[in-house]
Specification:
Layout: H1 4-14, E1 38-42, E2 45-48, E3 53-56, H2 71-81, H3 92-104, E4 110-114, H4 117-132, E5 136-141, H5 157-160, H6 175-178, E6 181-185, H7 189-198, E7 203-208, H8 224-235, E8 238-242, H9 254-258, E9 265-269, E10 279-283, H10 285-288, H11 307-320, H12 325-347, E11 351-356, E12 359-364, H13 378-384, H14 387-399, E13 402-403, E14 412-413, H15 420-435
Parallel strand pairs: 3-13, 5-6, 5-7, 7-8, 8-9
Antiparallel strand pairs: 1-2, 2-3, 4-10, 9-10, 11-12, 12-14
Helix pairs in contact: 2-11, 3-11, 7-8, 12-15
Length: 439
Amino acid sequence: MNTTRSEDLFAAACRVIPGGVNSPVRAYGSVGGTPRFIERGAGASFWDVDGNRYLDYVLSWGPLAVGHAHPAVVEAISQTASRGTSYGAPTTTETELAELVVATFPAVDLVRLVNSGTEATMTAVRLARAFTGRTRIIQFAGCYHGHADMFLVQAGSAVATLGLPDFPDFPGVPAATTADTLVAPFNDLDAVSALFAGHADEVAAVIVEPVAGNMGVVPPRAGFLDGLQELCRSHGALFILDEVITGFRASPGGAQACWALEPDITCLGKVIGGGLPVGAYGGRRDVMETVAPVGAMFQAGTLSGNPLATSAGLATLRTLQEPGAFDRAESLAGRMASGLQTAAESAGLRLQTAHIGTILGFYFIRDDAPPDAAIHDYDTAREYADTDRYARFFHALLERGVYFAPSQFEAAFLSTVHTEADIDTTIEAAAAVIQTLRD
């Protein structure tokens, strides 16, 4: 592929933007090379500035559940923009989006819209502390809840992808801001029980990605999420489910519908904005009524509930909820996972795949890993994942017009506009590339 313009534009960006990007993983730091600058998208594909077309399985890191430039979403944004872009006052679409979230998630009685997933999780923890009168939180190594200071302790892809220093050496994060953050291994209930035992009456909340999506895609072990919820109940802590990735992707009702959970607070983002900046946190009525102006816990945002974002989110969710739409995309994710697994087995390589709803993940397992090596938490992801092999796979697929995440530790996503032909094309290309990765 000719990538001359992307290379020139990246050089120009580096002169005025740190690292040339406005979010670190876009810089291809873990796979090498120059990022492609994207000019436009349509359906399941996008095109770079040099005219190269790619089948897209990043989908803006998850929000584009109905693909690029879906006509219903474009029309909703266009009509809204023609009337104004922001008012700093209530609009009907805020209420409509909130009603849709409340109707979809039985554990959510009230919901507050914000501007990002980071803002949602950050505020959810503040809410839990205000409601319980406690200060400590428990999170899991490798789970990423945004870049708020309190979360930057073994923070998943933020560290694993970029090779950044981990806690306590995360530059700019004072030790005091993470002093009340306790960390347990993902999928390890015994470790969480031990933390509760050692900090009785101090833990305000446990926050978890129900399906880890920032150390690669790691599903919860049987009983793990139920066990966390029960531990929170028994110790008077709140159970916060970070569904920024899994909301409307693990299932139409998120991961909590898959595992019949009743979190006290749910965090959402990505899909509910249809590609525009948005986040949300919601939960039990008594908990949410702690939030100002009803309660005393302060949180505010000039652009929260922005009419463009809420209109795009409503159009996206209504399209996603059309009969059969989600089921087709989920089926394609399974087909992709199966095809990649078969291709790896044919080449004599070890590949660990997972798919939940429309989320897909896969790891190349190092040749020197034990025969029974399996990834189930952050430590095993860092120990067994073959990042060099993934980098070769990524670039070879890119040259064939298939765009996966430029990191072994990020998820892939399917949309309602991907087709069986797209999946077949991708599997065929991947199989050819995987055959070249044996050495």
